Amino acid sequence: MTKPTRRLFTNGDLRRFRAAADGGQPFEAPTRTVRLLLRDPDEHSPGVDGAWWPRGGNLTAELHDLVCALTPRLGRAERITFDWNALSIAQRGIDPPDGIDLAGPAPDQPHHRMHVFGRGGRCLRLLIIEPMLDADRAYEDMQASVTPGPEQV
């Protein structure tokens, strides 16, 4: 009796990233839905432009998906500043051909805020929601971050 041949299950697309000649951006479609909420483009705030709720503690593992989701608003990402944790530093998820500089926070940058810089000085400031926060609380925090305050109405 012969055993049936085992086939590797894929959806036909292994999602292997191949850097483009110009540095690899924009990335292919995200592999997972990014939990991201942004203000409307015409709304300005002294605080944040949106909130990102990553799925785990290694934020660099999800950066390709985040950058892909931000590309329509920001254009090509050039630099991301954040107070990276030890896990994220040890397991960088952005490769040199991607053309994104991962840097530490600016001196006045709050601990739970990520700045994503595009060309021409454009910047999106994202509140980072704790990955292990329960869904209801995370949703409330994300909504609060993009809701205009009384001074903005």
Protein described:
With 153 residues, the chain is of the alpha/beta class. It has a domain at 47-146: 2-Layer Sandwich (hypothetical protein PF0899 fold), CATH 3.30.2320. 19% of the residues lie in helices and 17% in strands. The chain has helices at residues 63-74, 86-90, 135-146, and strands spanning 36-38, 50-52, 77-81, 101-103, 113-118, 123-128. A six-stranded mixed sheet has the order 1-2-6-5-3-4. A hairpin with a 4-residue loop joins strand 5 (113-118) and strand 6 (123-128). The radius of gyration is 18 Å and the shape is globular. The protein starts with 35 loop residues before the first strand and ends in a 7-residue tail after the last helix.
CATH architecture of the domain at 47-146: 2-Layer Sandwich
Per DSSP, the total helix count is 3
Radius of gyration: 18 Å
| Major β-sheet strand ordering | 1-2-6-5-3-4
Q: Helix/strand-derived class?
A: alpha/beta
> How many strands, what sense, and barrel or not for the largest sheet?
6 strands, mixed
Q: Mean pLDDT, nearest integer?
A: 77
Low-confidence stretches: 3-23
How would you sum up the global shape?
A: globular
Number of strands: 6
CATH topology of the domain at 47-146: hypothetical protein PF0899 fold
CATH class of the domain at 47-146: Alpha Beta
Q: Would you list the SSEs in sequence order as H and E?
A: EEHEHEEEH
Q: Report the end-to-end length measured between terminal Cα atoms.
A: 75 Å
The helix fraction, in percent, is 10-25%
* Beta-strand share of residues: 15-25%
